[in-house]
UniProtKB/TrEMBL annotation:
Record-given protein name: Pyridoxal phosphate-dependent decarboxylase family protein
UniProt keyword Membrane present: no
Organism in which the protein naturally occurs: Promicromonospora aerolata
InterPro entries: Aromatic_deC, PyrdxlP-dep_de-COase, PyrdxlP-dep_Trfase, PyrdxlP-dep_Trfase_major, PyrdxlP-dep_Trfase_small
PANTHER family for this protein: CYSTEINE SULFINIC ACID DECARBOXYLASE (PTHR45677:SF8), GLUTAMATE DECARBOXYLASE-RELATED (PTHR45677)
Lineage: Bacteria, Bacillati, Actinomycetota, Actinomycetes, Micrococcales
Keywords for this protein: Decarboxylase, Lyase, Pyridoxal phosphate
């Protein structure tokens, strides 16, 4: 028999030492379910009380005050417990947040949110699903895909169902900027596959297209000047004649148009480009047409204005922002493509996540994100609760309100309306007879600042055709014409006050100085 190897002594097995005992009540689990319910209830009660008490969209606190409040919190200090921490957050954050549900908030593309969606937020936050792979999401994957199919159907794309080669597809994203970026990435990849060099790629878009178009070109490695400006008409809509000329000019320069970007709801004016004529030109030369409908997508469910999107079904890709026009909490956006195969360049496989051999329906295969919230749940619940027609009626309400405000301003001697809108935007200036345009220009940012600092009303400012303008973005279907008239009166009062202040500063000696005992007399005044 062969000699046996000598036994080698083995070290005794010692279990690793456990760290300090943690707080076993800190995490949401079965044992803390009742604490979870109490916590959510307390937060909901606090927010509800604040909602009931709010009388203006902002507290009016100065940036220096808010910074001081934030800096006063010791983030390395001792633990205060869940209840106290949430109370502190309410007094810090909720007390000084911008309340988009207030009818005097009319600044940006922020909407009040649907109650069913807020309920869904509670559910998805607690369960914390990540909709990247099927083994993390299960039914959520199918629910998101069903909503993409529903949206595609509303657009007018053919929907053949999951698992087929043809038909529309898409994915939820964090917002319109990401949706636009992904669409242009897909267009770039199609052009690269066809042998087009990066340095010769061009994107055609108007100067009023969303800034994310130019930013996407930069991030995609396209050269400076890759976004070629297409002319617009007097209302800021893309001019088909200008587009036709731009297509010819790019080709003559030896470059290649990889995408044309049209807009259904420009940020400043809320105007919709002529989708049919633009699609005709794109089809004629075989160019990818991307439609940024982040603002105007609500018309997909409008009972009276859906026709304004006629031609949307001819786009190759469409951006929709449910957190703008469908009254969803941020974030809830999607990119929808007409052909499922167009999403293929996004796919990236990793053995630990989504190996190629995996037959499960993984959403990460068509998303730029990996970990991703189940934001589709909010829209799902809202559709089931209110119905598409119910959402569409709210879209119509804000568009009708904007039309009524336009009519009001057109008959007001102090204000000048700037342009028109297809949606719910109102551009105007305080410019009564006798006030020169340059003076009116200077008042725009001053009026906006006075209103913001007071917290009583929030309006936006922008520049259109070189003219500064005040802007109302009306996305609150519960706001009334009387509410917006109140905002306009605040604008008028602020402008009057600013002009009166300018008049007083131009007087060497205020008229009351000689009679008011508390005002110091001017030096050398013998009276």
């Amino acid at each position: 028999m062969p000699a046996r190897l000598p036994a080698v002594p083995q070290p005794a097995t010692i279990a690793p030492a456990l760290g300090a005992r943690h707080d076993t009540t800190a995490l949401l689990r079965g044992a803390t379910a009742s604490s979870y319910a109490d916590t959510v209830r307390e937060v909901a009660d606090d927010v509800a009380a604040r909602l009931s008490a709010v009388t203006q969209p902002f507290s009016g606190a100065a940036p220096s005050e808010l910074r001081a409040l934030v800096d006063a919190v010791d983030l390395d200090g001792p633990a205060s417990g869940t209840r106290q921490a949430l109370r502190e957050a309410g007094d810090l954050y909720a007390q000084h947040a911008i309340w988009f549900h207030e009818p005097t908030y009319a600044a940006h593309l922020n909407c009040p949110v649907a109650l069913p969606a807020v309920g869904a937020e509670t559910m998805l936050a607690a369960i914390n699903t990540s909709v990247d792979t099927y083994d993390q999401s299960t039914v959520a994957t199918f629910m998101e895909r069903r909503l993409i199919e529903w949206t595609a159907g509303r657009i007018g794309f053919a929907v053949d169902g999951p698992g087929t080669q043809g038909g529309a597809d898409g994915v939820f994203t964090s917002g319109g900027t990401q949706s636009n970026f992904q669409a242009l990435f897909l267009a770039r990849e199609q052009a690269r596959t066809a042998g087009v060099a990066l340095e010769s790629m061009r994107i055609l878009a108007t100067g009023v297209s969303h800034f994310s178009i130019a930013k996407s070109a930069l991030l995609l490695g396209l050269p400076d000047g890759a976004v070629v400006a297409v002319g617009t008409d007097a209302e800021g809509r893309l001019s088909p004649d200008s587009l036709a000329q731009a297509l010819v000019d790019v080709e003559r320069a030896g470059d290649t148009v990889i995408a044309v970007v049209a807009t259904a709801g420009t940020t400043d004016r809320g105007c919709i480009d002529p989708l049919g004529p633009v699609a005709d030109l794109c089809d004629a030369v075989g160019v990818w047409l991307h439609l940024d409908a982040a603002y105007g997508c609500g018309l997909l469910v409008s009972p009276t204005r859906r026709h304004l999107l006629d031609g949307i079904e001819r786009a190759r890709s469409v951006t929709v922002d449910f957190h703008k026009a469908f009254f969803q909490p941020v974030s809830s956006s999607a990119l929808v493509v007409r052909e499922r195969a167009d999403l293929a360049p996004v796919a990236w496989h990793a053995d630990y996540l989504n190996p190629r051999a995996n037959a499960e329906p993984n959403q990460v295969d068509k998303s730029l994100q990996t970990t991703r919230r189940f934001d589709a749940l909010k829209l799902w619940v809202t559709l089931r609760a209110l119905g598409a027609d119910g959402i569409g009626a709210m879209v119509d309400a804000v568009c009708d309100l904007a039309a009524a405000v336009h009519h009001d301003l057109a008959t007001d001697r102090d204000f000048r309306v700037v342009g028109t809108t297809d949606l719910s935007t109102v551009l105007f200036r305080y410019e009564p007879d006798g006030l020169d345009p340059e003076h009116a220009n200077a008042l725009v940012p001053q009026v906006r600042r006075v209103l913001f600092d007071s917290g009583r009303a929030l309006v936006a400012k922008t520049v259109v055709d070189g003219r500064p303008c005040l802007k109302l973005t009306l996305l609150n279907p519960d706001a009334t014409l009387a509410d917006i008239r109140g905002v306009l009166e605040l604008v008028r009062s602020a402008a009057h006050g600013l002009l009166a202040g300018e008049a007083l500063t131009g007087i060497d000696e205020p008229p009351c100085r000689a009679v008011h005992p508390r005002l110091a007399r001017a030096e050398g005044d013998a009276r």
